[in-house]
Amino acid sequence: MLQIDDLDEYQLIKAAKDEMVRSMDDRSQMKRMLLHICSSGGKNIRPVMLVLCTDMCGGDPKSSVNAALAIEFIHSASLIHDDVLDGGLMRRGVESAHEKYGIPAAILCGDFLISKAISLISGYGNSAVNEFGRAGMYMAEGETIDISSASEEFREKNYFECITKKTGSLFAASAAIGAYVACADEDTALKLRSFGENVGNAYQIVDDLLEYLDKLEDKSSTYESVTLPLLYRRVMDHDAAVEKTVQQVRLCVQNAKDILASFPSSDAREKLELVTDLITVDMLPEDVL
């Protein structure tokens, strides 16, 4: 079955990212850290979505590469900072940046990536830049909610606010920015923002469910957030909690696909539908479906 890294859009982004890191001064400690981070792989999901949304809205996919890199770099920065906050030991199967290089260097690497991302997005006009800035602020707000999730006052509505800001916001910005790069109108961009948010929320719920089921092998940390299946376990048994969590995933995925269905049929739309499934329902274990 076709995977994300089989897509031309993935190869386009990977080549641009590799070239940017390769062009840095070989004596730079920052380059060594970035090479370590890039070696951990990653599917470039958000930037791939951005490029595909540009294509679906009638734009030139190559014109969106810098915007896609900006999204990938701020995402990578957030992972570095999250690992520092959570005491993350492994990320995508390799040692986390702060474990390998120390906390001060890891934080500075994250700062470098944010600065580079701002530079890359700055040439795309106010609408795209505003989407980007909004996502960055929401991601930070979402992390503050996540940090407080151990409180007994943390409820389902708090969880959804948390993941919508922490994860959904960058998916939302990716899709909306893709539309803006194609010079689509605001209504189209807002529609795609909602699409991205639903995909991002489904993606995070799946990740949380896999962690609850102890099926994440390439990630470990010393801090555990209170996630949706854990919240459901407060009031129901294990099987019911898992079933209800899967229902939430399916609802978000259906919302996302309903939005895509409002766009004309195209190769880009089909790829967006494929990516949506690959990172959500296709990740669910067979025994919970």
UniProtKB/TrEMBL annotation:
Needed cofactors: Mg(2+)
Coiled coil: none
Keywords from the named record: Magnesium, Metal-binding, Transferase
GO biological process, one term: isoprenoid biosynthetic process
Membrane recorded as keyword: no
Membrane spanning stretches: none
Keyword presence, Cell cycle: no
GO molecular function, a single term: prenyltransferase activity
UniProt-listed InterPro entries: Isoprenoid_synthase_dom_sf, Polyprenyl_synt, Polyprenyl_synt_CS
Highest rank taxon of the organism: Archaea
Stated family: Belongs to the FPP/GGPP synthase family.
PANTHER family, alphabetized: GERANYLGERANYL PYROPHOSPHATE SYNTHASE, SHORT CHAIN ISOPRENYL DIPHOSPHATE SYNTHASE
Name of the protein: Octaprenyl-diphosphate synthase
